[in-house]
Amino acid sequence: MANYITSLNQMIAARCAKVxxxxxxxxxxxTGTFISGLSKNLTVAEGGRIINNANCxxxxxxxxxxxxxxxxHAVYFAKxxxxxxxxxxxxxNTFNFIRCSRNLESLGSFQIIMLVCDQGFQGPQSSFDxxxxxxxxxxxxxxxxxxxRDAEDILDMQLAVPGFxxxxxxxxxxxTEFLQLEKVYRSDDCSVFQYTEGADATIVGFNFAFHEGxxxxxxxxxxxxxxxxxxxxxxxxxxxxxxxxxxxxxxxxVVLDDSKSVHLPCYQLLDAIHEAGISFRRVIVTRKQVxxxxxxxxxxxxxEGIVSQLAxxxxxx
Amino acid sequence: MPAQRDLQLALxxxxxxxxxxxxxxxxxxxxxxxxxxAFGHEAIAVAVSTMMQTEDQLVLTHRNIAYNLARAGALRPxxxxxxxxxxxxxxxRLGSMNMANPPRGLPYTSSILGNNMPVACGxxxxxxxxxxxxxxxxxxxxxxxxxxxFYESLQFSKSQKLRIIFVVENNKxxxxxxxxxxxxxxxxxxxxxxxxxxxxKLEGNLVADYAMQLEECRRAVLDRQGPSCIEVxxxxxxxxxxxxxxxxxxxMNIDASRGLVVRESVYDPxxxxxxxxxxxxxxxxxxxxxSETWSD
Lengths: 317, 296
Fold this sequence. Notes:
Chain A is an alpha/beta fold. Chain A has helices spanning 4-16, 57-69, 81-84, 88-101, 131-137, 148-158, 210-222, 241-250, 265-275, 303-312; strands spanning 23-26, 49-52, 73-78, 109-116, 142-144, 163-170, 185-186, 192-194, 202-206, 228-232, 252-257, 281-285. Chain A folds into two domains: 4-173, 3-Layer(aba) Sandwich (Rossmann fold), CATH 3.40.50; 185-312, Rossmann fold (3-Layer(aba) Sandwich). Chain A has ten helices and twelve strands. In chain A, the strands form two sheets. A six-stranded parallel β-sheet of chain A has the order 2-1-3-4-6-5, sandwiched between helices. Chain A has a six-stranded mixed β-sheet with strand order 7-8-10-9-11-12, with helices on both faces. Chain B is globular, with a radius of gyration of 18 Å.
């Protein structure tokens, strides 16, 4: 089985090849390492373009919106989330102009497909991983690709569809096995995916922490516990109902969010559950301390501790 | 005797001046919020609008009033947008600094300095990909050209062979400061030469002259399949934004009752027309323009 980056590259390339008159662009998109393997073997349908651009991220982001306004499907392949900070003006201001004054269905589309450097060891200026929080500033729908199931649905439902969105892959997963999962549920807006059903806990992975959530699920299984496993994406006005219903049944919630920012997307879910008036026990795993220097960016999770806690704790009434 | 086309161009410049007076007087009365008026920018605005063909697009800045008036050919839709009325040109969704008019070739206007040039590049690339025949013209100024996107967009447009004209309105001010106040001199011509981008400087604010030179520039962009850059020497004859005068001791004073001319200078396109046209011809156009009745 191909690894995470190879599998996702194949899925992305296959879909880009079908985009009518698509413009695929980015720095080193068709040379060198092909953005660490992200943009290998790209082809376009008749009339499309593959453009290897100079280093001008702000302009590339603005040009993506210009192409969208002009009726073209534009796909910007980017090396890392840090670079997208240079395009924030366009995500906020240009996108605001478009969505408040134009019917998006009459336009082309713009998507940024990128890696997020969350694997560490690249220094203090290449480790920005707060993808959901970043997108929430401008209310941009953003999706992480974690496994075969969410990748298939997100790419099929979002790529080259009128509008703007970001789709991201995790650098720290690049060489890992590509998870093959079955889907129990997916919300229409792709904000929530559910993979398992169970009685003892609800597990939700945010940002790039789904794999840790999946590992926790496996550890629970080894101890004879079952769980409902979800991945969540930052989408404006997300559909949390399925997760809230799950927590109402299991009364135990484990949230994992590896974002480095202070305002974590997972807090929005916790607010929604409290608003629903559900009493539940919770385990929230986040980065309590962030080292701004060169460091191993692995997201530490005390699996055994959490499983023991879940096994020992009675369900709240 | 000037050609009929030149008289039409003069009429449009003077109409836009008259309409700006109406907006300025409304701001003085306090019945309208602050607008970035553009007294002094009328000649280049009319020339750009005249140059535009069916599939051409124009991308503007916060100081867009003269271009929006030129493209709309009327004050009412612009005025109503300022007043946040549903009958406004952008259905009261965009206001003064982002005013756009897609059916008239104005797909995007930005109030953020330097933001609009990358978007214009994308529009030009879309034209190329979709096999359209138009060009994109993007406005910027002596302030916005200090932003990195000016350099980036020149480079991007040259690299991708985009049919785009960058128009730098050098009105000598970024809000209250002059280029000399805030930076070293920047020779745009040299920046363009470094990237092999043709450069043209427009001076004199004579609308017929500008229209002719822009049409030549458009033809060259189409022939060459690549960008051009134009620097326009002009002055903004009013305050940065809002009514002029803005306060009792404001050194600048614009008053509609004194006629269309604001300053007896080469930087006032209406004054330039007054100098060029026979007095009776000028008076005839002025009378035609001022006879338009207006109510809020």
